[in-house]
Amino acid sequence: MRTLTDSGGAPSARTGRPPATPRSATSAGGRGLSRRAITMILLVAPALILLLLINAYPLVVAASQSVHNGTLIVTGEFVALTNYADVLTSPRFWSAARFTLIFTVVGVFGSWLVGMGLALLLRTRIPGRGLFKVLLMLPWVVPIVVSATAWNWLVGTATSPVPTAAAKLGFGELTFLADPTLAAITVCVFKVWVSFPFMMLMTSAALAAVDATVYEAAGIDGASRRQQFVHITLPLISRSTYISWILMTIFCVNDFPTIYLLTGGGPVDATSSLVVLAYRSVFQDLQTGPGVAIAFLMTLVLVIISTTLYRQIRKVDIA
């Protein structure tokens, strides 16, 4: 004879175990949060709030400063978008934007070409390849202050080693950091110098992931080295290439120490980029509104460029 459990929850005669208690209304059907989920949220919440304050609060304050006519101490009067209008109609802004564009294009593609060439060279069996690789990393590893000081010693004055050697070779007296055109060229070359090791590492990692049998099959089919590079190497490393372009674009546009330590933005603003112009507006001219407006315009351009290159990454189809 079977004994059914009573309403008080007595053990069942068949199993000898108490019946399962019904689920609470808060967790039935997936509604509500379990105690474990609430605990995890409470543990993570302080870190999330801290990150929000660190990132969001300065952004809100900067946005407020960009629409006020004030300084670092006083907020000033609300001027709406006047600062943005003044910046976009300023000849200094467009001069800095032009140099920023040149500096970025040369920095990205110049360092990429040098880095790729060296990465391909390091894949061959050359004597002392390990030592050679370490030496090539020095421009990136050495602090930028040391590199800028060394370059100032090399080209800073008419009696520096490079101008002296150029004069002896018949090029005349060259003032690399005093002539506007030569100063812009020197800054761009310096940027390539300090950036190519990063591109070399990115390209080396991408080349290491390419299957060697692909080249063997292409060689059997009669493809030349140039055809293999154009139709095999470049497509297979395109994802890494686009990522390195995005990162280097951000590095170049936001690069303040490379320019400021070498030329200070001179002569006559010839090497003044947007980030240098923003720094001068805020900390030298004490015009916080226009300086922050320049920074926001830079951010907008970087977002557009990064989004465009990211879409190219998603379009890459590697069979």
Describe this protein's structure.
- This protein is 67% helix and 1% strand.
- By secondary structure, the chain is mostly helical.
- The protein has two domains: 47 residues, no CATH class; 225 residues, MetI-like fold, CATH 1.10.3720.
- Strands 1-2 form a two-stranded antiparallel ribbon.
- A hairpin with a 7-residue loop joins strand 1 and strand 2.
- Helix 2 crosses helix 13 and helix 7 packs antiparallel against helix 10.
- The longest helix is centred in the first third of the chain and has 32 residues.
- The N terminus is likely disordered.
Notable traits:
2 strands, two-stranded antiparallel ribbon, 319 residues, MetI-like fold, mainly alpha, 2 domains, globular
Q: Secondary-structure map with pairings?
A:
Layout: H1 35-66, E1 68-69, E2 77-78, H2 82-88, H3 91-122, H4 129-141, H5 144-155, H6 161-168, H7 180-208, H8 212-220, H9 225-236, H10 238-253, H11 257-262, H12 274-284, H13 288-315
Antiparallel strand pairs: 1-2
Helix pairs in contact: 1-13, 2-13, 3-7, 3-10, 4-7, 7-10, 10-13, 12-13
Main location: membrane
Organism: Kribbella caucasensis
Protein name: Multiple sugar transport system permease protein
Summarize the structure.
This protein is mostly helical and 319 residues long.
| Overall pLDDT | 84
Task: Output the strand order for the largest sheet.
Answer: 1-2
Largest sheet descriptor: 2 strands, antiparallel
**How are helices and strands ordered from N to C?**
HEEHHHHHHHHHHHH
Question: What is the number of domains?
Answer: 2
Considering DSSP H and I runs of 4 or more, what fraction of the residues is helical? Answer: 55-70%
| Low-pLDDT windows of residues | 1-14, 21-30
In DSSP terms, counting alpha (H) and pi (I) runs of 4 or more, how many helices?
13
Q: Which structural class is indicated by helix and strand composition?
A: mainly alpha
Oligomer: single chain
How would you name the CATH homologous superfamily of the largest domain?
A: MetI-like
Radius of gyration: 30 Å
CATH class of the largest domain: Mainly Alpha
Q: Which architecture of the largest domain would the CATH scheme give at its second level?
A: Orthogonal Bundle
| Residue share in β-strands | under 5%
Total number of beta strands = 2
CATH topology grouping of the largest domain: MetI-like fold
Shape: globular
